[in-house]
Known about the structure:
mainly alpha
Amino acid sequence: MITDFNALSIDPVKTGQKMKMFRKQKGLSVKDITDALGLRAPQSVYKWERGDCLPRIDNFFALCCLYEVSPTELCCFYNNEQADYFRNFFLVTKKAS
Length: 97
């Protein structure tokens, strides 16, 4: 179990690469994502996919829905302990709902 929550860090570059991979697997363009999320311009999507920054939490979950993946499938953490913790967290949360 992770006890130092200050150490939790999402790897934005690897997460961005997965965002791009899932978008392409779904046959969606950057414009499709921009329109679906109600963004004014595509620059945010490009920044996310390059790993320059991460989307806001609402957009992150919208991407999960669009790509039909769980948050743990879309996120990449800097170490496996973090990934395992959140994978288990979402499994427990999913079973409870």
